Structure formats: C-alpha cells, structure tokens
Amino acid sequence: MKKAIIYVLVSIIAICFFAPFVIMISGSFNDLELFVADPLFWLPTTPTLENYVQILINESFPRWFMNSVIITIIPVMTQVFFCTLIGYIFAKKQFKGKEVIFWSLLAMVMVPRQLLIIPNYILYNYLGWIDTYLVFIVPELWTIMGVFLIRQYLQSIPKELEEAAWMDGATDLQIFFKVIMPLSKPAMATIGTFAFIGNWNDLFSPLIFTTSEEMYPLTVGLATLLDKTGNFGLQMAGATLSFIPTFLVFIFFQKYFTEGISLSGLK
To answer: Lyase: is it a keyword of this entry (predicted)?
Structure first.
C-alpha cells in the first residue's frame, strides 16, 4: 500500500514535469493561431510541419540563432577555463586573506539578480555596451558558483599529486594544464553544462539589455513571435527548436555532469 501511494505521487509529479513539454511539442505540430486554454485543442488533429517551415524561412531566425550561439559559446568556454584556474588557486594555493576574499565573493550570489539590474544597466549604458555582445559576454567571463564548484572538487584531489609534479620540476602553469585540468574534467563539464543552459535559456537579461531586433537571441525573438503573429503553434515550434541544443548538451555531458555534481558535494 505504501509503495502504491509513493508510485502515485511520483507519477503525479512526473506528469506535472512532462506536461509542459507535451504541450510544447504537440502544439508545435498544430495549426493554432490563438492560444486555447482547453488542453484537447493542443492535440493536433491534422499534424503539420508548417510552423517549423515558417520559422526556418523567417529572415530573423538565423540572426537570432547566431546571437544565441555567440552569447552562449564564448561564456561557456571562458567560464570553464577561468573558473577552473581561479578555483585551483582558492583550493590549493595559500595567500593572505584567501578565505575572506572567497566567502566575500560567494556572498554576492545571495543578492537577487533583479536588484542589480538597474545599477548594471546604468553601468553598461555608461560603457556603451547596451545592445552589443559585450553586455552578455564580459559579465559572464567567470562566475563565483563555478569557482565554488571547482574549489570543492579540487579539495578532494590529494596534494601529493602536485608535490610529485613539483619534484619532477614542473612549474605552476605546467601543473595546472597537465595535472589539474585533466583531473577536473567532470567538474569542468558540469560548469560548461550549467553555463550553456543558463545563457542559452536566458530571457531576462536580453530583454533588458537589447533594444534592436537584430540583437535579439532566440529566447527574446521567439517571445516576440506571438505578439507579431498571434500564432500559438508557431511559438511552440520555436520553443521546441530552442530546446533541442540544451537537451543535446545535457545528454552528451550527462556522465561527467553527474560525476561532477557528486564529487563536488552539490547534491
């Protein structure tokens, strides 16, 4: 009886999680020009690929897709490298004020992002970054959460490995590139996956910091489609296309992602 109750609860939770995906995918094959609250209308009676065709031939779609690629791939690469480097310093090196600096940086995460949006906008506007790639790339070069994850992970690696490399005459940079980075692959994959999903799916920042349609990423561009066309099926097709890259990244790095989460203590 107890197991049956658990199975029912798990099934309800699973349905709640999967329902939006089912609506998104089924709606993408439906020729619905207006949003209908009845779920039965989301199931296509005559499935069609017309919504996907309309999006792919939309002249703005390639531009939005390329913008998303640029403001996602560059931060992913820089975060993986810089978070690993800074995390290595905080995990293995000794210097005055190390703990104070680290926990002070980590405390910044506690400030809600929405509270900083106006100061950030004033600063970026002063620097002339509004409606440019810089406003999305420079602030995302590294993140303190990525540093925290790497630091936690590297603390589990024996110091004897570094000492052995020193005895063989390796420099700090050689130890970092030839010992630390190869051993940190699971944590680096986790940072990369988090960074990719976070930047690719970000709607809030591009909505504030872009003023022209040419600089829209997919998230903002697709959100404007419903306002322009009033076609619910078209927007669901766009959401499905936008979802595919994050799904593939998660599947590809799933093994490293799980290991990185487990060994860094973020479970």
So the answer is: no
